Amino acid sequence: MSKIEFTAEQREMMVNKLQRYFEEELDQDLGQFDAEFLLDFLGKNIGAHFYNRGLHDARAIFEARIETIDEDIYGIEKDVN
């Protein structure tokens, strides 16, 4: 899997969310460097699990749509008898 890249704005948003979570839920101050380090750690160590789950969900949607299309195609077949 290739590395997932985010824009500076996206990274900043994620870092801010981590900092807010630590402050509001854990009553801990998470500095900018620590939040960026944590974000990188999460991305490298568990991000693939979330990515793969997203692919699994997308595949299920795709397969359901293909099944519907397949049924529609069979539905327009002409009787050859």
Spell out the blueprint of helices and strands.
Layout: H1 8-26, H2 32-45, H3 47-75
Tell me about this structure.
The chain is mainly alpha-helical and 81 residues long. It is built from 3 helices and no strands. It is rod-shaped. The termini are far apart. 1% of the residues are buried. The mean pLDDT is 95.
Number of strands: 0
Share of helix, binned: over 70%
Q: How does the helix and strand content classify structurally?
A: mainly alpha
Poorly predicted regions are none
Question: Beta-strand level of the residues, as a percent range?
Answer: under 5%
Give a short summary of the structure.
By secondary structure, the chain is mainly alpha-helical. It has 3 helices and no strands.
Using brief descriptors, characterize the structure shown.
about 80 residues; mainly alpha; 3 helices
